[in-house]
């Protein structure tokens, strides 16, 4: 839950600032790039099978 709080406290002002300085396309590209990077890292480091 701490990650969600930090994301809200940092992400909203940062996204608003980037939107004001550039435009919404840059914010969309930034968030999309981070999301794609996270997906690649999950596929790389999370085990495919969990042995119980």
Q: Write down the Rg.
A: 15 Å
The outline comes out as elongated
- The average pLDDT is 88
Count up the helices: 2
Runs in which pLDDT lies below 50 for 5 or more consecutive residues are none
Q: What string gives the helices and strands in order?
A: HH
The separation of the N and C termini measures 26 Å
Question: Hey, roughly how much beta strand do the residues contain?
Answer: under 5%
Helix/strand class: mainly alpha
What's the short version?
With about 50 residues, the chain is mainly alpha-helical.
List keywords for this structure.
52 residues; mainly alpha; elongated
How would you portray this structure in words?
The chain has 52 residues and is mostly helical. Helix content is 81%, strand content 0%. It is built from 2 helices and no strands. It is elongated and about 50 Å long. The two termini are 26 Å apart. The mean pLDDT is 88.
């Amino acid at each position: 839950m701490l990650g969600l709080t930090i994301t809200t406290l940092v992400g909203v002002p940062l996204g608003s600032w980037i939107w004001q300085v550039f435009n919404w396309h840059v914010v969309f590209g930034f968030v999309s790039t981070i999301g794609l990077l996270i997906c690649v890292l999950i596929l790389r480091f999370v085990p495919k099978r969990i042995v119980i």
